[in-house]
Request: fold
Amino acid sequence: MLYSVRGKLIHTTTSSAVVECGGVGFHCQTTINTLKTLRIGSEVTLFTYLNVREDAMELFGFATKTELDTFKTLISVSGVGPKAGLAVLSELSPEQVAMAIATDDVKTITRAQGVGKKIAQRIVLELKDKLAKAAAGDSGFANISAGAANASTGNISKAIEALGVLGYAPSDVSPVLATLDSALPVEQLIAQTLKQMGRQ
Reply:
């Protein structure tokens, strides 16, 4: 319903930002990572997610589309609500979330405030399962370009898996990864791929 809000940042708290658009202040709950990028009085754009419940409507805002997509992926896990999604993304970047899921790193996810071991295990288990199904159903997976296939070192394949957690099909990210230095750390490969995908 609401894709984004753009306007003047007029107020922040430790967990929210108020963006004034056409005289209306939109109160967006957000992450610490997003808040770090905002300055009071400046013009900002937040990508939004509207959560509608029986007793409330809550607007969530994020500095990047990747952060929003990761938030939506996290709250798709049973038992993980918006509060837990914000907590995870306040502690970790989308790339770190993807890496934690791809490498079964439950401990990293439990660094988020209020996220215990059981919830972290469920996040890893369910999203890894979704990733496996997406890869199996991706008709382009077997047709990765020869360049990407040659570059499919350990780090490249880990990056493909981690990007799959964020919702990117292997056939979409493999050509981009094939142009990058396969010796780069996985997190850098993910970040550079996301940057290039954003330009397309």
